[in-house]
Amino acid sequence: MQLLEGLLNRVSASKLEAPGPNEQQLEAIMQAALRAPDHGNLKPWRSVMVSGEGRHQLGELFKQAQLQRNPQSDAQTLEKCSKMPTRAPNVLVLIASPKEHPKVPASEQIQSAAAAGHAMLLAAFAQSIGAVWRTGWVVSHGLIRNAFNLQEQEQIIAMIYMGTPSIPLKPVPKISSQEFIKQWH
């Protein structure tokens, strides 16, 4: 796939099934992330892959976190929470991990981590791997933060669900770029 074609046609794949990326595909995804813009070459991010039984364990954590958020949660809500990580064969948890640096503020490092995540999505798409960037309340909940050993300065940027698209990808919407760019002076 040509680079520009991938950039112009990537869409999220929300319905995913096995198989997920193999070792070589995952390595390409990680190498793409390592090419993200990164002032100071700090690599201010880390990732954790959740697959297999780990997805069910993460689902139980989501359920427990939901109960902490709302002890009155109904069975349907709790079931939904427990099944969230099983919507794909792999969930890559992307964590921004800013480092102390005299010239590179934490905000710029967090942006670099997000750019690494976008590169992961593009690399997945280039290899016909479906991927979707998910966040929501779970990424900032204390129970989930603790499960991934987040330090105070760290934050989960995304949970990137990956697998084989189980339905055709939606066509890319046509959006005029004119409202997103203006000439200065």
Q: How would you describe this structure to a colleague?
A:
The chain has helices at residues 3-9, 23-33, 53-69, 75-83, 106-126, 142-147; strands at residues 16-17, 45-51, 90-96, 130-134, 155-165. By secondary structure, the protein is an alpha+beta fold. The chain has one domain: NADH Oxidase (3-Layer(aba) Sandwich). Strands 1, 2, 3, 4 and 5 form a five-stranded antiparallel sheet that branches. Helix 2 runs antiparallel to helix 5 (106-126).
CATH superfamily: NADH Oxidase
What is the CA-CA span between the terminal residues? 38 Å
Task: Decide which structural class fits the backbone.
Answer: alpha+beta
Strand content: 15-25%
Unreliable spans: none
The largest pleated sheet is described as: 5 strands, antiparallel
- CATH class wording: Alpha Beta
CATH topology: NADH Oxidase
Envelope shape: globular
Show the helix and strand layout:
Layout: H1 3-9, E1 16-17, H2 23-33, E2 45-51, H3 53-69, H4 75-83, E3 90-96, H5 106-126, E4 130-134, H6 142-147, E5 155-165
Helix pairs in contact: 2-5, 3-4
